[in-house]
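On to my pick:
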Amino acid sequence: MRIIEAQMRVVCTDGSGFDGSYRLVTTLLDAQRYPADRLVRLYHERWEHESAYYALRHTILQGRVLRSCDPVGIEQEMWSLLPLYQLLRRAMVGAAESRPGTDPDRCGFTIALQTARDLLVRAEGIVEQGIGSIGRRALSTLSPERRPRVSTRKVKSPISRYAERKMDGRPDGSRTVASVTIALLQPPPSPPALPTTMVREYVGAGQVGNRMTRVLAALQAEPERQWRAREVAELLGDVTPVTTYRQLARWTERGLIRRIRTGRYAAAAPTRTAALRPRPKR
């Protein structure tokens, strides 16, 4: 693997900005062919693989599920969908490369699919030299260039056990990016030593710094205090009240803390084990 570390500064059009440290792990080991700064800039487009799933499920299948009811048939259907998707994408990329400076993202996948379908129905123009009918149609209906935007990552599922948003300094809403400055960090002269043992998360009091340990330490320091869930969220500082409620409910079920009443929690009573004494002989 190849590890790339970079410090990034993003400035938005409204004057706001934030800094971030990124560590990118990749299997592209050739630094001459794949420069580090280009890989870091491409990392912002990592979410676009979701567009491939959308194109396969909604654009090609139009929301329908696979028809086969056995593994062999499903595999056959998937192999028919994937080559079709790749061929259309190759036609779109080839068309964009014929016009220097054109981003392939501006080519519409739906336009390419409809054009390919029309060619098959009319049985004409299947094999053409150059960019072909699909490429010409894609270039004639280019989408506008994408605006560089930034916003924090949010969890949209209401039942997710993860925080609704990350406290990373990024804005809640989408904002247009004015400039991005990337400073590549030099790797250390020698790789750090690997840990000798692997410790599971949330095991024992030695895990100083995780959420459960910090909450238990605070509650045990004031055993008579009835903590509000919002106070626990403020103590952690990196989670939302909704996430705090979920975690407090799980810790209560495990007997780590006590639920006094709605929204009030306290440290669990210490368990006492009576020493076993031999019964006196009569």
Residues 71-97 form the longest helix (27 residues). The chain has eight helices and seven strands. The helical segments are 36-42, 49-60, 71-97, 109-122, 132-140, 211-221, 229-236, 241-253. The longest strand covers residues 2-12.
